[in-house]
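Incident log, structure service

09:12 report received: a user says their structure output differs between two submissions of the same chain.
09:20 pulled the input from the user's history:
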Amino acid sequence: MNSPTQPRQQEQTLIRALGRWDLTAIGINQVIGGAIFLMPSQVAAQIGAWSVPAFLLAGAASLLVALCFAEVGSRFEGTGGPYLFTRAAFGRFVGFEVGFMQWFTRVASHSSIVNGIALALGFYWPAASLGAGRATVIIGLTLFLTVVNVIGIRQSAWVVNILTIGKLVPLGIFILVGFFYAQSANMGSFGLITWEQGATAALLLIFVYGGYDVVPVPAGEASDPRRHIPFALIMTIATVTVVMTLTQWVAAGTLPNLAASRTPLADASFLFMGSAGALLIGVGSVISMTGNNAGQILTGSRMLFALAENRQLPVWFGRVHSRFRTPANAILFSSTVALVLALTGSFVKLAVVSAVARLVTYTGASASTLILRNPRFENAVKRPTFVIPFGPVVPVLAILVSIAILFGATREQILGGSLALAAGAALFSLNHWTRRV
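09:34 re-ran on a clean worker, output below:
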């Protein structure tokens, strides 16, 4: 009989081909998506000049949660990440809910972002954002990324690595050139802000920094996951904190009235680099979103695979391709669902789920860090190769950071997330009942 943390054996197994920098690229790729190109103005609209230190503080808060993922992730070698953590600490039902919500948000995010790509391309090619042109972009891009994911984890990692570099280069140029043009006078004064403004900005920043939770998900395809996962998580947060804080500083220092801009980085680039700068940022945003989608398919499909591998979904989802050694069925299913949502526009209604999904995932992983330290689990899970200093302090703070999402979430987001959790509970019960009969 299998233990809660040990998946059953497959006739075909996944290939362990991911190194520490591959995992780091996956993390950076998932955090830096399309939001950084649009969010600077939205955060500035809430808290003005405080937006620059707020980006830095949000990175520090994210590091608290990421450290919990790093410690608990260093105990496991299989595919699933937070699903495995919470399953070991709290049982099959809680683990399933975390895994289901992670897959659900990956698919919904893919649908949303691929539509964003079509809109971005529509600025240069109007037909790309309408009718048949929009459908062609959405189908073509999803099909390409799906094929890459099916034919091999190594090929998927190459694409993610290239697109990660491709999104960092424009941001790097924006920061380096903008540094010489930024003026503190453009940033405004550090005035008083209300609790509501602070809470809204905090929720926006939590979403800007979201995505690093996927780093442990493909651990079953990492060459040394118990050592590489902690490294990748810490490097991810360190890198994105520096990049996004400096990006916000340049945007605030070069673009007067940043809060009023709908395309802040493109507008700022136009001021100090002209039309070539605006084009650079436009291309960078498309590359960034494309890379994010490549990662959504990679990590979302692995979550389905992990659920099936541990007998919480039909075995079909856990089958490994005999030639490519990838979870091909899970990849095809995830991409098909995302494609349907993207073409029908249903992703707009599903976007509200992400707040509760992050609350469940972050809180579950942080609490699992504390629970699995209990000596009664010493025979059920491996000893961590990375241990957070200061005892329970960091996990407790991480739990508080995670719960803070609730205070910034809207009623619609809480309701949508609750309905998604209810759907997950129904699916769990159905799977449990069908296995008994």
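09:41 both user submissions now match this output. Likely a transient worker issue. Closing.
09:42 reviewer note: The domain at 20-436 is CATH 1.20.1740.10 (Amino acid/polyamine transporter I). The radius of gyration is 21 Å.
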